[in-house]
Amino acid sequence: MAEGMTTQPARKPARIEDDPGLSITDFLSDGGFVHLCATLSDLLAAPVRLLDSQGREIVPTDDEAVTWRLVDPGPDPAELAAERAFTVPMRAHGRVIGWVHVGKGATTEGPQAADIEQAVALMVDVADQVCDRELELRARLRELSATQRLSALLASAQSEDEVLGIALDSAIELLGLWAGSLVLFDQDDQSPGLATEERDVEHRVSRNLSESWLANPLPLSIDREFDKRALAGEVVAVADLQRDPRVQLKDRTKKEGLACALHAGMIFNQKPLGVIRLYGRQIRQFTPAEERVLKTIAHQAAVAIGQARLLRMQREERRMQRQLKLASDVQRRMLPKRPPESERLDLAASWEPSLELSGDFFDFVELDRDTRPEGARRIGIVVGDVVGKGVAAALLMSHVRASLLAHASLDASPGTVLAAVNDDLCRDSLPNEFVTLWYAVVDPVSLELIYASAGHDPPVLLRPVVDGMPPDSTEVEGADARPMRSSGMLAGVLPGQVFDEERVPLLGGDTLVMFTDGMTDARNFDGERYTRKRLTQSVFRAVSADPDISASAMVKEVVWGVRRFSGLAAMPDDQTIVVLRVKP
Predict the structure, then answer these.
(1) Does residue 260 carry a pLDDT above 50?
(2) Which candidate, 135, 205, 406, 410, has a CA 20 to 30 Å from the CA of 355?
(3) What is the SS3 string spanning 522-565?
(4) Average pLDDT in the 298-317 region?
(5) Which of 163, 203, 198 is nearest to 182 (CA)?
């Protein structure tokens, strides 16, 4: 039994809300059931009439193209009552869609009357089941069609607002309702529950609802029960807004012309996005199939919105990555391309950020440009480590580097330079923004090194063992590993600090290794630190294997030693190393 054929003029499909109701004519196709009633009439020798939901009689025809027709107007109710032996209502999903009217006759009033009535009732029951299944199939097909259509529309949507509009319009059209709105919750709202008033929602799209309705902060239901249940996965159906005890805005709904409501939550990845709220102008009992259609639309809309947001986040992330890449390139260009050249000094460095941007930096400052020829000029060497990582650390690093270069060009004294940088940093930064610095000036002629430190890890000066090793040196496999200690405080903590200077005469064959704590704090998969001792031993083994090893080869050897130790473990911090070798 499917869509019927009738001699009545075809009419446009009505919206459900405007349809007077289902009728048996909606399920007749080849007229088989109509002919069955006619045959039954002949067998019982009593009139058996099939009536539609409006009481019009349906009769068979001899036309193969149109096998049944409606008799309009229908039989007189008084005549039907006079001839009736019994009537069996036909139902689909509990709604009366027609009647099988059996008239009086010898068989229908005789001893077999009860059996005949039971047989007709069983026949009608079978027909009811077929109609129920037909309705369920239609609902499934309508739901599938709606899903496919909605998926196609949502896939072509260019913006989140377009997605929302398509979802709301599709729900109103498919369910034959009058008005609706689609509200989204604040994406930044991390509160576990809903507020008493609707101050956490945004009416992104609406249809046929007044501004006063949309602007009212009071929810439709008491304690926002409808929203809570919708976000718990239910479809909230309200057949009569005036009679439902959960509704608290009865006067406003009446003024707005709303009689029924249907709500469903939009949830993506277990996160509530919002609620679709639909309204009708007539009291209406919603079927499970209709509720399922709305739930499907809400799910499709939630997925589309969630994906749209993810795509927007991905686009934003790609944009940020491009910006970070540009910033990283700029930061890398700020570092010296090559160290200064000297007959007695060999310099090299390595700089590896743990993220796109680094808080580590190093630099070489060529001094005495006006007083000494190239190759004999003093060289300033700075290694620094800004607290933290990422963009903030990189910006602070740029500030510190610019300050140091500016002051170093005016005064070659390391202690004076660090004091000026510290005052600049205290003036321009926050209390939790500070930096460790190690700054030295080396003379390639006299081989004197003057340095000062602002809380930085002491570099290591490695030289062959000689008589009278200083008390603060440590023998490492036959070498004098001397830490270049200094008592300076972190830069950027307190203004007016004094940074003491230390003087060290360098000797041929000396190796000075300056580094940031990212080198010594590197860890393997067992959580062990690389440590200062391992770094020093790595330097010693390289010098022992090749006493004439270059500074650049030394840098590669030390960096490779750290990487061998760490393996594939993530780099927890930026790693910077500068090596100075004094040629024999």
Answers:
(1) yes
(2) 406
(3) CECCCCCECHHHHHHHHHHHHHHHCCCCCHHHHHHHHHHHHHHH
(4) 81
(5) 203
Give the chain's domains with CATH numbers.
16-141 (3.30.450), 157-311 (3.30.450.40), 338-582 (3.60.40.10)
- List CB contacts of 489: < 8 A, sequence separation 6 or more: 422, 454, 455, 497, 499
pTM: 0.56
Token pair, residue 243, equals 């009679």
Nearest CA among 125, 119, 126 for reference residue 40: 119
In angstroms, rounded to a whole number, what is the distance separating the alpha carbons of residues 123 and 129? 10
**What whole-number distance in Å separates Cα of residue 542 and Cα of residue 33?**
100
Q: State the DSSP string of 252-321.
A: HHHHHT--EEEEEEEEETTEEEEEEEEEESS--PPPHHHHHHHHHHHHHHHHHHHHHHHHHHHHHHHHHH
Other Cβ atoms within 10 Å of 461 Cβ, number: 22
Q: Are 385 and 435 in contact (CB under 8 A)?
A: yes
Of 114, 115, 112, 117, nearest in space to 101 by CA = 117
How many Cα atoms within 13 Å fall on the side-chain side of residue 255?
8
Q: How does pLDDT run across 498-522, given as a tens digit for each residue?
A: 999 999 999 999 999 999 999 999 9
What single-letter amino acid sits at 305?
Answer: I
Characterize 393-411 residue by residue with b for buried, 16 or more Cβ atoms within 10 angstroms of its Cβ, and e for exposed: bbbbbbbbbebbeebbeee
Q: From residue 268, give the alpha-carbon distance in Å to each of 292, 307, 308, 310.
A: 17, 9, 11, 11
At residue 572, the pLDDT reads 79
Read off φ and ψ for residue 383, nearest 5 degrees.
-130, 130
Distance CA 425, CA 438 (A): 15
